[in-house]
Amino acid sequence: MTEPFAPFSVPQDRDVLEGFADLALLPTGETPQLRADAARNRTRLLEVAVRLAAERGIANVTMDDIALGAGVGKGTVFRRFGDRTGLLVELLSHHEKQLQAAFLSGPPPLGPGASPVERLYAFGSAVILHEHAHRDFYLEAHIEPGRRRTSPAYHLRLAHVRLLLREARADGDNELTAHLLLGYLETVLVDHLLSVLGMSLERVEAGWRDLVDRYTGERGRCTG
Amino acid sequence: MTEPFAPFSVPQDRDVLEGFADLALLPTGETPQLRADAARNRTRLLEVAVRLAAERGIANVTMDDIALGAGVGKGTVFRRFGDRTGLLVELLSHHEKQLQAAFLSGPPPLGPGASPVERLYAFGSAVILHEHAHRDFYLEAHIEPGRRRTSPAYHLRLAHVRLLLREARADGDNELTAHLLLGYLETVLVDHLLSVLGMSLERVEAGWRDLVDRYTGERGRCTG
DNA sequence: ACCTCAACCGGACCGTGGTCCACTTCGTGT
DNA sequence: ACACGAAGTGGACCACGGTCCGGTTGAGGT
């Protein structure tokens, strides 16, 4: 079985990383060398968190529960993960990395090989499915409004979308467009459309493709 | 001076309300008849909240502060407003109503009279400016992800945008498009673009007009 | 083997949002 | 005037996220 809590490392794709040397958490792939006991506790905490979340839903798991379950003091939890959001992010990072691997270096149409527009289509579907699958975690982690958009994961998605837009020769302000596109894929919005408004997944995906089309000039643009 | 905390009532515009009879908080214009002492406490609480927020920023005002300042028990605050978000929403409702009045029945191009596309342009700018002006409150109130999109204010904006899209003969899934457009105007996104990324207001507004164009076929669409 | 010290640990403690419920007060019908 | 019930009140209480700090431990140097 794969080790979910291994040190951070991301599948490399030179295209996307271009201009992202400043993305501090990404490149070196080095974890700051945890002490043996600390590493052990970290693993136990994450395992306990996963177990409890599976049992009763992450929303019903407190930090004390996790500390207690791991036989560890509360301070240890917060020293390691900073705060609740930090722990959740770490829990998601395994899945997040799978997604990243898929669109950075997986098979087409999500990965390299397909046309940029096809890749954008696939990217939208993948993200929607991905976030929907783990939506309790994402919703729980999103409590902090600002932090999401400053996370490495978000930056990576942003860079990827921006790249594909450029490859697709999208006209306009691609930086802004990338943000807009990711806005459509936000967990809270998608979840609202699907769960609250009861829209079908197909409809939301069609909306995404339509959106991509309108920005990549895939249909009906008069190039004059 | 205008009374900021008067019973709820919204400028009527038959066009927009169309199909919104179910929007329970809107139509009757009736407040559920508060007892005299309760009404007095409500007003005092809101006044105190406004004062404290002005003094030290809403983020540094606790519910206890407000209760204490109004000379009232904590339970009273929560009975009246439900929770912190509820109080903030009520604080915002005054400004919110001004915005609503402006786009429902104010002068063009924001209000009726201009072309739908012009009105959409103006709507975007107005919302961005409005939310930016009160962004501490909106950011504070947004802590709950789901609730925003179920609020009457959001529904109203949604209905308005949907109507303008229809008037502009926008092709496509207008329901979805309306959600997408409002997504671009979300406080957290706009604030991130402006404050964190340092984009200019003009740029963000241009992005909005571009977005509207692409959905109303204002430019470059090949009809036929 | 021992010393040293930064990293780590734990759990008491705190602030804040939110609940609870015995008691009080307002408005209404008679 | 008065009684009565619904609505309102207040503050003790709780849960949970997060901080603090005195004590502990493990890894590298000698």
UniProtKB/TrEMBL annotation, chains A, B:
Domain HTH tetR-type: 39-99
Keywords per UniProt: DNA-binding
DNA-binding feature ranges: 62-81
Keyword Electron transport: no
Name of the protein in question: TetR/AcrR family transcriptional regulator
Organism placement in taxonomy: Bacteria, Bacillati, Actinomycetota, Actinomycetes, Kitasatosporales
